[in-house]
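Quick start: read one record
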Amino acid sequence: MDYDETHRLVQGNYLDAPPLASECHIIENAEGAGSDAEILHIAEIVRKLRKKGVDYQDIVILTRNTRDNEAYRKLLSAAELPVFVNNRSGYLDTLEIRTMISLLSIIDNPLQDDHLVGVMSCPCSTFRKMTSLKSGHVRTRITCMRRC
């Protein structure tokens, strides 16, 4: 199959939108800062954003794990930056995230019935009725998919 320009993936499906700017920061010569070099660099970036007029409420720092959140809170507070840390765990257990993980699993391996049932049972599914299985027998039938 030949692909041309009309088949390419377009970011956000906004054909006339300019590309989003991205940055890559490499921290070198962080002597003396140790493992806190990344956090101190982020504090400097936040200060620069504030000088450009960005509100604090528009700045979010996503960490790799929740173990480091306390270090971020301490160092950003010491840098006199307002900090709110959300240590809430379980955000991957929300219905939306579980549904998307199931959908990606189906794309990866369409034979995973448990993930298929998870996607079919989500509220945004186009299936009106779920099939329930008992002892390998179908008790009710799946009704047709609604037209979108």
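Confidence is low (pLDDT under 50) at residues 133-148.
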